[in-house]
Each structure stands twice: as C-alpha cells, then as structure tokens.
Amino acid sequence: MADQSKSMGFQSAAGLIRYFEEEKSKGPKIDPKLVIYISILGVIIIELLKVWWPIH
What we know:
By secondary structure, this protein is an all-alpha fold.
C-alpha cells in the first residue's frame, strides 16, 4: 500500500513540472508595471469621457 502512494506522487509531480515548463515558453513577456499603467490610463480616459459626454 505504501509503495503505491510513493509512485503516484512522483507521477503527479512530473506532470506539474512539464506543465510549468510549457507555460514559460509561450506568450508575450509584459512588464507588470506596464499593465498597471495601462489600467490607470484606461480609468482616466473613461472618467473624462463621462464628463465630456454625460448620458443622463
């Protein structure tokens, strides 16, 4: 019974390692600060549009 639990832990860990290696190699690299700046800029633009074009 103890031998089965040891082998299952190794297999699940190997799958996680493979998953994280694949995830690192795909997708664009974006600086987290850039995402925050774009979000703040979007909020400012939306708030200014509310003032310029009110929808009462």
